[in-house]
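Researcher: For the annotation table, I need structure tokens for FAD dependent oxidoreductase domain-containing protein. Please keep the output clean. Sequence:
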Amino acid sequence: MTGQAVVVGGGMVGAACTDVLARLGWQVTVVESGAVGGGATAAGMGHLVVMDDSPAQLALTSLSLTLWDALAPQLPAQAEYRRCGTLWIASDETEVRGAQPKQRQYHAAGRDATLLDAAELARLEPALRGGLAGALRVPGDAVVYAPVVARFLIERAGAQVRRDEVTALEDGCVRLHRGGPLRADLTVVAGGAEAARLLPEVPLRPRRGQLVITERTDLPVRHQLVELGYLRSAHGSDEDSVAFNVQPRPTGQLLIGSSRQFGPAGRDIDWALLRRMLGRAAEFLPALADLSALRIWTGLRSATPDHLPVVGFHPDRPGLYLAVGHEGLGITTALGTAALLGADITGGASPLPGVDLGLGRFTGALHA
């Protein structure tokens, strides 16, 4: 089956879905109210990372990293793809022991992961403070400038881009604010935080994050650096949280995260939370305190109750496909999400057998 497809949202997930649909023979129109790749895609760190918070998350991120590996040679230089790897930093021996099952999970998924002792960590990343206990090194992780990739995939697909706002999803068409109805044999909603407005039955909540980029520096940072306590911040309670997460950029700058905050729907900077975030980062990289910030910005992630995306056909609305709720992993999992879409619309075997990311896991509905 092919025909006219409409993808709602021109971020990284929407672009990946567009690319797969075009390769399957669909004529695709992307509806995006802002610039392609200019929403949550531009507000993220572009970290391509295998995460093991749940078996489903491990399977989806591992599949996605394999697809990113295959895509990387085709990307333009401006995408700044680099396989710098991730160091999960252990502050003490308890965290070192906690990294051991994480390493086993990575190996079970076919991903390389190596435990480093304190001396090895200090040799690889001498700018980190002394007294750290070690790290788990995941060399296959990478970073990318995702807005460029989103534009590349949509252009490669030959898709039409409509700069408009979707006001309603109806059977066989999408209602636009300025352009009237747009016929759609298949509609894919990949609109990040905006999807909650169109699909109130999907349990999505915006979660705000803040990022800082520094001036150029000769501070030697070679890997994406993340504290092992990051998952407590990412998937913990509803309270505001911060974690150490620093990424070296090809420009010689450092990108500093991360913060997570439910509640605020706007993009105003929370200065108190920002100070907490920077203070946490300086605990691991003390020299950060001497650098100037060139830019600070916020973005809204779209989160589900179980921190997994909703991917699959809507159980009650024929012709409507959901690719939403990726929270902070939208860049990493975009390609895996698109692969699931391709399998679902062609009736092929799932690339993630046994993994259910459908809306029915919240509503109890069966897959349509």
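Researcher: And a one-line annotation?
Model: The longest helix spans residues 55-71.
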